[in-house]
Amino acid sequence: MNRQKKTQKPLNPVNRTNFFSKLFFTHTAKLFLKGYKKELIETDIYEVLPSYKSKELGQKLEKEWTKQAEKNRNSLPHLLFKCFGKQYFLLLLTLIIPLTLTAVKPLLTKRFILYFASDRITFPKSEACVYGALLVLIEFGTVLYAENFELGLITFTLKVRAGLTSLIYRRILELESVSIGRSVNLITKDVSEFEECVLMVTFMLRDVLKILVVCCVLYTEVGWLFVILIIIVVMAMTISGILAIFVKKLRVRTLAKTDERLQTTKEVLGGISLIKYYLWGDYYQDKIQGIRKKEVSLLTKIFILLNTNVIISSSFIDISWYIIVVSLISSGVKSNVGTLFVILNSLNALRIPLQHILPRAVLEFATIIAAITRIENFIRTTSRNIDEPSPNIPLLSVKTPHMDFDYCSGITAITGPVGGGKTYFLTILAKEDKKTFAYASQEPWLFPATIKQNILFGSSYDQERYFEVLRVCALLDEVQDSTVVADKGANLSKGQQARINLARAFYKDCDVYLIDDCLCHLDVMVAEFVYEEGLRKFLKDKIALVVTQNLQHIGNSDRVLTLKNGTIKSDDKQLVKKKLTTKENTTAETTKLAEILETDDNVYQEVKASGKVKLEVYQKYFEACGGISKILIALSLVVLTQVLKTSINKLQANWSGTEQLIFKNSTTTKALENRQRMIYVLPILIIAATVLFIANTILYWCLTKKASVSIHKFLLSKIVNSSIEFFNSHFIGNILNRFSEDMLYLDEFVHRALYELLKTIAATTGVIILAAMINVYFLIGCLAFGAIIIILRTIYLRTGRALKRLEFSTRSPLVGHINATLEGLTTITISKKQNLQREEFDNRQDLYTSSSYMCMTCEKAFHLAIDTCAVCFGAFAIVLFLVLDQDISSDNVGLGLLQIFIFTITQEALCRTWTRLENYMTTVERILQYTKQNQENINGVVVTNWPSESEISYQHVYFGYDTTNVLNDLNFVVRSKTKLAIVGKTASGKTSLVSLLLRPYGFKGNIFIDNVDIATLSLDLLRSNVFIISQESTLFSGSLRDNIDPTKKFSDDEIWQALKMVHLAGLFQSLEDKIGQNTKLSGGQEQLVCLCRAIVRKSKVVILDEVTANVDSDTETVVHSVILSSFGDSTVIVITHKFRYILGFDNVLVLDNGTVAQVGDPRRLLEDKNGMFYKLYEKNHKQ
């Protein structure tokens, strides 16, 4: 929707590079150089690769889904197979390369070790050199293939992600309504889960094949005993499968809680002003945090199941080796050191698959099923409201309104009582395919972009028509079209919002204009001008259907329809005029002047941190975990676990050496005694290591779980308690992104990366110690290798960290765009602007996809550099073994090769997890950025028995939102328990005047209530005694009671009495009825529910800001009677554009351009025929 001219981005160099450059990632060198010299910014992101474009992928999936629908066999797996299956299976075919290398490597290792156990005559050194060289080449080929395969797989999932996300968004545009929580969760969580699961399941397939290869190798060495490995693997997979069933169920429940949390958070952000004014902040914080705790509780159960599997699988390698060796001994088979190390190396090749990949893949398979089910159900949804059932009003009695209803040129007024189905009637008409429609909603819909872009809404710019539309909507001299509109137009007055919303409809050249009571938000003079100049003159040759309660507008219309209970009661102009009483349905304005901001290429662009993640971020995270002391305790348990694992490795090497001695001389008594001792010691060490592993895993999760809950609570508290200025300057999409995907990274990735880092540090230390025990030269090599790794990491991290930040920051516009789309879904659908929205969404997603692709490519280039260094270190070790061949035993050679293999893996893992941790910690950094906002100052004095009389006095009050004052030198007094009406032109400052009583902003001057300056009062005390009903009827998800009295301060009887007073009791069966589920309310009925809040609250000061704007004359009478009966002991201030009951007020204050033009008894003010009040009254009286 932010229709800026698309800037030309640099082309991705992968398009212009050769095969070898792609193979070795040399095309990333320029990007690394640029990233090392300066902080990368959004303009440095490459143009998305053609095959990754969101538009083409979305269209491809949508087309295939339509084909499946025609055959009545819609299935998401089948859809993805048809669209992406060929590319995926080509990737899988390349697995033959690493499987071949896996089969050859143990055999070469055996031959190399046997050289050191031989007499050097039958086994020449030249042959050992050949085996050593082949080992190095195989290792390099393995890592080169691994990085390219993983990049191909990851970029494949990026393509699937882009296509699925685009398809989901296209589906959103076809629906009538869908919750923001569900939409965001589908795109940020379900699609991400799907993306992760594709990786894991692919790795699982690869590792199952690797297990088969290892079984073949073991069969050549130990014969039938290889069955032991098969039995253990089958046991591991069976356990994983059982656990996966439970994980699937827990994932579904977790996602439902995430949906609920995000939906509630979105509602809180959207209604933050009222939540602050009503002192409901603590309630909603507790509600969201309660949902969050349930969500984390379910995550805990998932974590327990996942790690139970990991713990079991991790012990299987050592147990398998032990059982195979003991079985060989029991069967009388003599084994040499080469055979035992072939077994050990083969099993170690399965350590990562069995300990990490397979358990996680099997359990993630359950997650992918849950994600597929949710996405598939959403895509299958027909074009209806998927979150709320049909309204409780009857459907229109006409069978097909667009056919039975005859259009006629001119203005057709549509009127009727509250809840009569007027808006619903317009939406039904808009489904007519033979006509084009423009629609202006009753509640103005504006999206984050400039005013000009909001009006054009993707249409071509016609300067003459554009400025004429501004003129007839009274916008020409009032706003600048370069003003950037905040979420929901929060930086504009209500009247300005309504007129921009109307201008969008007027600008579109179409057959039928559907105007849903937009003029009710304007004062009588502006409304009359827009009606005459816009509806009557500008649209004089068009069909205009106007929902209105304004009698003058009805009288001037060419035709009138009356709707009641969803039925067209009459199509007779004179009949309607007789039935309707005089009314002018208007809404007062907020008088906030538009904050003038020059447009940018991306209105959602965030302030992005630069440089390395500060130590303060880690410190905050560790504090959230419970403090650095507890982290050190967890680290100590990790170290102890590693000590035991290192002891196991050393014992296995010694055992292999012992078996070599027995192989040469079976009567060696000492060797036999050593063997017997090891048979008993090794299982004890394995059990002890497993127990410690369980202990440190549980402790670590407890710490990180605490961090997830406390950081969310801290963020939520800081957001809810931020000043109103924060919400005026930050888009909801950006804020909500902190609670969605950033929180997902905190829950799923940050703790995992930190834990892996602790484990790899301990493992690397253990390997270095063992290497030093073999030969001191290895220690030198380890230190040199470590230094090179640190240098490489330093070079990479500047670029990688910046790219990760860009990846996160380019994701926020997607969430913001979805939020804006859902808020204006009806307008988008009726205006047939779905293609415009899709194009904008696809452009935003292309930017996100390109940043993700760059991030992944650079990461894999970095990993290949580390792997190459690791291979060089392995070559160094092999050369060292050959040089020291007379001074080193075969078991130490075997142990050395094993430790080199482990060291290269741990060093690579250390560098990866260290880097990933810093990348992931940028999410914590982003979250903490939003905790540093200015907070509302709630401190102040608490005055007992205040207020008693509720007399209000404004003394020299000045107020402005920027450099321009909205209110100027206000001086007036509202006597105790009087009823004051405030009237005035559009944007004269009426809402700003009354809102200052609740202290949302600072102001100059003094406001006194009962001679107490409100600036000195505690904010809670002030707001607990001043109640406001705003011009926007804001309701929240939940029960009727939760919307009227969520803190449960009042009894059920009091609430029912309030509902009866506003004639809503008959709509509800229980106070636990869910708003929007058990009952669907019209806009006017929602406003009456809001009025019930004031009735039960019985505050000393009550402010009603245009509560009668969207109600009929009978309901207006009810509201007026409520003011007299329920607020008799309160000082009441009413902002109104209606003058039907104006003479019933004790006093009237006329506001003009932020100054008091007149104040006093309304009858006395009418005596001044030159006064503004008289002119306004006369204008209304004529109507």
Q: Which percent bin holds the helix content?
A: 55-70%
Distance between the termini: 39 Å
Structural category: alpha/beta
Shape: elongated
Strand content: 5-15%
Assembly category: single chain
- Biggest sheet character: 6 strands, mixed
Tell me how many strands there are.
16
Radius of gyration: 36 Å
The whole-number mean of residue pLDDT values reads: 83
Low-confidence stretches: 383-403, 573-601
* Distinct helical segment count: 39
Record the strand order, biggest sheet.
2-3-4-1-5-6
Task: Note down, in words, how this protein is organized.
With about 1200 residues, the protein is α/β, with parallel strands linked by helices. A six-stranded mixed beta sheet has the order 2-3-4-1-5-6, with helices on both faces. A six-stranded mixed beta sheet has the order 12-13-14-9-15-16. A hairpin with a 2-residue loop joins β10 (about 1005-1010) and β11 (about 1010-1015). The longest helix is centred in the middle third of the chain and has 52 residues, at about 670-720. Keywords: ATP-binding, Membrane, Nucleotide-binding, Transmembrane, Transmembrane helix, Transport. Pfam families: ABC_membrane, ABC_tran. It comes from Zophobas morio. It is a multi-pass membrane protein.
What tags apply to this protein structure?
1183 residues, alpha/beta, 6-stranded mixed beta sheet, 39 helices, 16 strands, 63% helix, ABC1_TM_sf
Task: Give a short synopsis of this structure.
This protein has 1183 residues and is α/β, with parallel strands linked by helices. Helix content is 63%, strand content 8%. It has a six-stranded mixed β-sheet with strand order 2-3-4-1-5-6, with helices on both faces. A six-stranded mixed β-sheet has the order 12-13-14-9-15-16.
